Amino acid sequence: MCQPRGPNRDHARRRQGPANVRRMSEYSPVAELNQLKAFADGLGRVEFSDGFELAEFGMDAGLHTWSDHPDFVSAFIPFAQATPSGSSYALWRCDDRTDLATLPVVFVGDEGDLYVVACDVREFLQLLAIDSEFLDPASVEEHSEGHEAYLAWLDQNFGLAAPANMDELSTEDKVLNERFRTWARPFVDLDEY
Predict the structure, then answer these.
(1) Residue 22 and residue 54: Cα distance in Å, rounded?
(2) How far apart are alpha carbons 108 and 37 in whole angstroms?
(3) pLDDT tens-place string over residues 3-60
């Protein structure tokens, strides 16, 4: 299970009320994603993390092209475009927890990649602060126009910043990714990735 990251991990959740209570006008049943949507809408057409764009919560992300088995497809809740070419991010229903914000985030690639990128939504929000389509600090050539506004929003709302050390995140995520690969193998061929 992912551990809290950042000094004020729970302060925004306390202000939001019960987790996963969705009002008709909200984007999703995940408070953190609703806050991200409000932030993104406030920026307008300005990009804040390279390649990232929220999409309809629960949209069709082409998971059926990986496997049409109902147990596979129903285990994901897509919520964003990861790249302009069609890759997506989705929550992975790895168990029966009710707080969707604590589910792992999976990259569903349009070129054959399928793996865990973050152990929960808050860690994913930190990764977006890298401002790289590949969530790789080494690939950042210049920051998006809304990058500084995103960093301020992330700190103000969650007490979080871009990861200072990717190794800090990757150890736990590697274990979670192996669990994901073990779960997915009966449905899809992941051996070459």
Answers:
(1) 17
(2) 20
(3) 434 434 443 333 333 444 445 579 999 999 999 999 999 999 999 999 999 999 999 8
